[in-house]
Every structure is written in structure tokens, then in C-alpha cells.
């Protein structure tokens, strides 16, 4: 299996190389040259298997020679050992044809654990073989950061720096990043929004002198291995509702477009998915793009679903690559226009491709609060604001095909919003019960590449 860049001017890599490289050296994102296919019988055979075994079958054709089967099996098994639900990703029924896919039973209570725990295992195995040391820099709007810290804290050959937007994550999310005491992990509160964090991260990758000096690695969904690991739960969920003989639809709360892009890959691999619905909060660039064809930034507007407060949606580049018939020149030009002119217009053929593959909707702040209350009243389920955005949008697409809405975080990560909507303050699980008693450690830095690089360099060379 070979990996190519969406911008067409970076070396072609193996799975392991793409995982360790992060952003391609031409600024693009790595993507498999071809997407492996499963037959209906192969998918049907997933029924009754453990989550880890399905993950092994889904990952294997993408991994190629990078990991041997037995090694991959034991790494995946270790990755999911710390989840606190036997099914790992259980389904809960909300209505006759509407299901919630609970993705918050991992150690940091968000769907990020599904991929980050796998990446943690795979990267450690690759580093043990190479004897190298890496510096992971991550950008987070709240959940990627804690999942990355959890997966890599305490490791001798990895340093982790997480950039989060100062004042724009929930208190629980911030404390998950600032309270771990291991010296190899550092949380940086950046004066800016998530788009600034992600832009500075990409700037670091594009500064080859810095990148090479610190052996920079990425664990955002820039990294193909992140997206790949998220493909698995589309299969387990669909199969448990009768797939592939019975099609299903998914509604996905969307920000950086990694999670729903994983659903798009599952569909390409042969999983019958009728609708893939993009659900956005008031930061609705993706919904507006599907409606009008204009992909135009309007500035990030802080919301009660802060992890989705994103306007530069990184993985949309991977979808555009396909929408334009895998023409890297068009992608590179549109990404230049987004960065320098604030947007671009999607060409007619590409727009039809997007509309054939996806539906979309948006939920306002009021609608999100109302949905948290309505879901509790109707079903007894307490949902987080990100999940509520998706449940609200999904309601417009309910039909005869089962709808699976992704529940991406535990409500206790966003207790203020949930309490405001319902009067109920969700409690943190036992392993995090003392989170607010633990001392915090963070560094506040300006939204400035030189300042960030200087801080990281100094921390690595005290
Ligand atoms: C809780 C939660 N829901 C939804 C999303 C959006 O996912 P994605 O960025 O993959 O579109 C995020 C951030 O990634 C998140 O943390
Ligand atoms: N919502 C994310 C933003 C980063 O997304 P990623 O999938 O690219 O890591 C977060 O919680 O940090």
C-alpha cells in the first residue's frame, strides 16, 4: 500500500512512513493511492467478532508490510484494553429508527481515544524498531489534546506539546491537558482560536529546518493513521444493525472533517451507507459549502460545542482531492486561495460530487440546548452538546433506513452546557473524580510561530 499527497509534490510513502511523517512536505495530506475493498461476505463475517478483531481486519489492507499480522493484532488489542465498555462502541436506541453510537468509553471520554490509543501503540512499536526520538506537536479544540497526552505520557522517546485556544475549551477539557504530571507532556494555551493553533502547527511542519531539528510528528487527523482507525466503528455499528445486507445512514458532528471522512472511506471500502450527514454548529462553513458551493471563512464564533469551533476544516482537503478527480494542482490552488484570500468556490462538477456523497445541516446554540433537553425527556439519555448538534440535524433525515448518530463525547466533559439545558450536572467517572483537585501546569504563548518554536526548542534542550 502506497500513500500519496493531496498536493502531488511530496514523496510517495509506506503506511509506517506516512504515520511518522504527519503533514506531507508539500503541505498536503497523505491518502492511500487506492482504497481497499471488502466484499459483502467479508463485511457480513464481522458479525459477532470483537471490536479489536474487526479493527485488525479493517486496518490490515492499509498497513501493508509495515506491521506483521501478529504484531498488529497485539498492538490493537492493547489499544482497546483500557476502554470501560465491553463493546467499546455500543449502540443505544433513541427511537425506532434512530441510534446513538457511543464513542466516549475510552480513557479521555471522547471518540479521539479510538484512534489515538491505536496510534500510540503503533508509533511506540515503530520507534522501538528505529531507535528514534520524536516531538509530537498537536493542535486541539479540546479533545485531541487530552487523548494525545493520555496515549503518550511518560514515554522516554516522545515529547508532546499541545496547542489549545486559551479560554475556548471547557474547564474539564483544559484540566485533562494541564493536570498530567509527566515531564514529557506540555500544554500550551495559545492566544487565538483553534484555526490559529492548527495553522501554526502546519507552519511548523512547513518550516523544514525546525521540523527536521526536532523530528516533528503529528497526531492530529493530518495523520492518516488517525482517520483510518476511525473507519472501524462505522463497520461495527452498521453490521450490528444488519449491514451489509441492510443499508444504514450516519450523522456525524463535524469540525475538522476527520470523523465523517472516515465514514466516507468505509463507504468506499464497500459498506452500504445511504446518507452521510455533516452536522455543524454555528461555525457552519461545511454546511454553507454544500448549500452554495462557496467555501468561505467567516471567523470562528465560540459555541457551547467548542470542539467543533473550526472554520479551516483540515480533512476537507482530502475530500476535495477526490471531488476534483484526484487532481493535486486544483487542490493546491484552492488551499492557497483559502489561506490567502479567505475562501474559494467549488467547481460545479466537484460540488455535484460532494452533494451526491453527503447531506448537511446546522444547529444554532438555542437548538443545541433544546435538543439536549428534548433527548433527555424523550429517551432518558444525557448527551453532550456536540452529540446534540448531530441529533438535531439527524432528525431532518430520519426515514426507513436506520440512522446512526455519533455520540462523540461524554456529557461530563461539558457540564455547564448540559446543566443549563437540563438542570442536571453530569458527574465525571471515578477515574477523573479528583480532576478539579489536581494542580495545573500550562504555558501561555502568543499566536506567533517564532515564539512557539523557540519555546519548544528550549524545552527540548534545557
Ligand atoms: C466531541 C467532538 N465532536 C465532534 C468533533 C468533530 O470531529 P472532526 O473534527 O473529526 O470533524 C470533535 C473534534 O474533532 C469533537 O471533539
Ligand atoms: N475537535 C478536535 C480538533 C482537532 O481535530 P483532529 O481530528 O484533527 O485532531 C479536537 O478536539 O481537538
TrEMBL record:
<feature type="domain" description="Threonine synthase N-terminal">
    <location>
        <begin position="2"/>
        <end position="80"/>
    </location>
</feature>
<dbReference type="GO" id="GO:0009088">
    <property type="term" value="P:threonine biosynthetic process"/>
</dbReference>
<keyword id="KW-0028">Amino-acid biosynthesis</keyword>
<dbReference type="InterPro" id="IPR051166">
    <property type="entry name" value="Threonine_Synthase"/>
</dbReference>
<keyword id="KW-0456">Lyase</keyword>
<protein>
    <recommendedName>
        <fullName>Threonine synthase</fullName>
        <ecNumber>4.2.3.1</ecNumber>
    </recommendedName>
</protein>
<dbReference type="InterPro" id="IPR037158">
    <property type="entry name" value="Thr_synth_N_sf"/>
</dbReference>
<dbReference type="GO" id="GO:0030170">
    <property type="term" value="F:pyridoxal phosphate binding"/>
</dbReference>
<comment type="similarity">
    <text>Belongs to the threonine synthase family.</text>
</comment>
<dbReference type="InterPro" id="IPR001926">
    <property type="entry name" value="TrpB-like_PALP"/>
</dbReference>
<feature type="domain" description="Tryptophan synthase beta chain-like PALP">
    <location>
        <begin position="99"/>
        <end position="347"/>
    </location>
</feature>
<dbReference type="InterPro" id="IPR036052">
    <property type="entry name" value="TrpB-like_PALP_sf"/>
</dbReference>
<feature type="modified residue" description="N6-(pyridoxal phosphate)lysine">
    <location>
        <position position="112"/>
    </location>
</feature>
<dbReference type="InterPro" id="IPR004450">
    <property type="entry name" value="Thr_synthase-like"/>
</dbReference>
<dbReference type="InterPro" id="IPR029144">
    <property type="entry name" value="Thr_synth_N"/>
</dbReference>
<dbReference type="Pfam" id="PF00291">
    <property type="entry name" value="PALP"/>
</dbReference>
<keyword id="KW-0791">Threonine biosynthesis</keyword>
<keyword id="KW-0663">Pyridoxal phosphate</keyword>
<dbReference type="Pfam" id="PF24857">
    <property type="entry name" value="THR4_C"/>
</dbReference>
<dbReference type="GO" id="GO:0004795">
    <property type="term" value="F:threonine synthase activity"/>
</dbReference>
<dbReference type="InterPro" id="IPR000634">
    <property type="entry name" value="Ser/Thr_deHydtase_PyrdxlP-BS"/>
</dbReference>
<comment type="pathway">
    <text>Amino-acid biosynthesis; L-threonine biosynthesis; L-threonine from L-aspartate: step 5/5.</text>
</comment>
<dbReference type="Pfam" id="PF14821">
    <property type="entry name" value="Thr_synth_N"/>
</dbReference>
Amino acid at each position: 500500500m502506497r500513500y500519496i499527497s493531496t498536493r502531488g509534490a511530496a514523496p510517495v510513502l509506506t503506511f509506517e512512513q506516512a504515520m511518522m511523517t504527519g503533514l506531507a512536505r508539500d503541505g498536503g495530506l497523505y491518502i492511500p493511492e487506492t482504497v481497499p475493498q471488502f466484499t459483502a461476505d467479508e463485511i457480513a463475517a464481522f458479525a459477532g467478532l470483537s471490536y479489536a478483531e474487526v479493527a485488525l481486519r479493517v486496518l490490515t489492507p492499509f498497513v501493508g508490510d509495515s506491521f506483521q499480522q501478529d504484531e498488529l493484532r497485539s498492538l490493537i488489542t492493547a489499544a482497546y484494553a483500557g476502554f470501560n465498555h465491553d463493546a467499546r462502541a455500543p449502540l443505544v436506541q433513541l427511537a425506532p429508527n434512530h441510534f446513538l453510537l457511543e464513542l466516549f468509553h475510552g480513557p479521555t471520554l471522547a471518540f479521539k481515544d479510538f484512534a489515538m490509543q491505536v496510534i500510540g501503540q503503533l508509533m511506540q512499536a515503530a520507534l522501538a524498531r528505529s531507535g528514534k526520538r520524536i516531538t509530537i506537536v498537536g493542535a486541539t479544540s479540546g479533545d485531541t489534546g487530552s487523548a494525545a497526552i493520555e496515549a503518550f505520557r511518560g514515554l522516554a522517546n516522545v515529547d508532546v506539546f499541545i496547542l489549545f485556544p486559551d479560554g475556548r475549551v471547557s474547564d474539564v477539557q483544559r484540566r485533562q491537558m494541564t493536570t498530567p504530571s509527566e515531564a514529557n507532556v506540555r500544554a500550551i494555551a495559545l492566544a487565538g482560536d483553534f484555526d490559529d493553533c492548527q495553522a501554526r502547527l502546519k507552519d511548523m511542519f512547513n518550516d523544514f529546518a525546525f521540523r527536521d531539528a526536532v523530528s516533528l510528528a503529528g497526531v492530529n487527523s493530518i495523520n492518516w493513521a488517525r482517520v483510518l482507525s476511525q473507519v472501524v466503528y462505522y463497520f461495527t455499528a452498521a453490521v450490528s444493525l444488519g449491514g451489509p445486507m441492510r443499508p444504514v445512514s450516519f450523522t456525524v458532528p463535524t469540525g475538522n472533517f476527520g470523523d465523517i471522512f472516515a465514514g466516507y472511506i468505509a463507504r468506499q471500502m464497500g459498506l452500504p451507507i445511504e446518507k452521510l450527514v455533516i452536522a455543524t454548529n454555528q461555525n457552519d462553513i461545511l454546511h454553507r459549502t454544500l448549500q452554495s458551493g462557496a467555501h468561505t471563512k467567516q471567523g470562528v464564533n465560540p459555541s457551547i460545542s467548542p470542539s467543533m469551533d473550526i472554520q479551516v476544516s483540515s480533512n476537507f482537503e482530502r475530500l476535495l482531492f477526490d471531488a476534483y478527480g484526484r487532481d493535486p494542482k486544483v487542490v493546491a490552488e484552492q488551499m492557497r486561495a483559502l489561506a490567502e484570500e479567505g475562501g474559494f468556490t467549488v467547481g460545479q462538477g466537484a460540488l455535484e460530487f460532494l452533494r451526491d456523497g453527503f447531506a448537511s445541516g446546522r444547529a444554532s446554540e438555542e437548538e443545541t440546548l433544546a435538543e439536549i433537553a428534548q433527548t433527555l425527556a424523550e429517551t432518558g439519555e444525557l448527551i453532550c452538546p456536540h452529540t446534540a448538534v448531530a441529533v438535531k440535524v439527524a432528525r431532518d433525515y430520519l426515514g426507513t433506513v436506520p440512522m446512526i448518530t455519533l455520540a462523540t463525547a461524554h456529557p461530563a466533559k461539558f457540564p455547564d452546557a448540559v446543566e443549563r439545558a437540563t438542570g442536571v450536572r453530569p458527574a465525571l467517572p471515578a477515574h477523573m473524580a479528583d480532576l478539579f483537585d489536581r494542580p495545573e501546569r500550562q504555558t501561555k504563548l502568543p499566536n506567533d510561530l517564532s515564539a512557539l518554536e523557540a519555546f519548544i526548542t528550549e524545552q527540548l534542550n534545557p
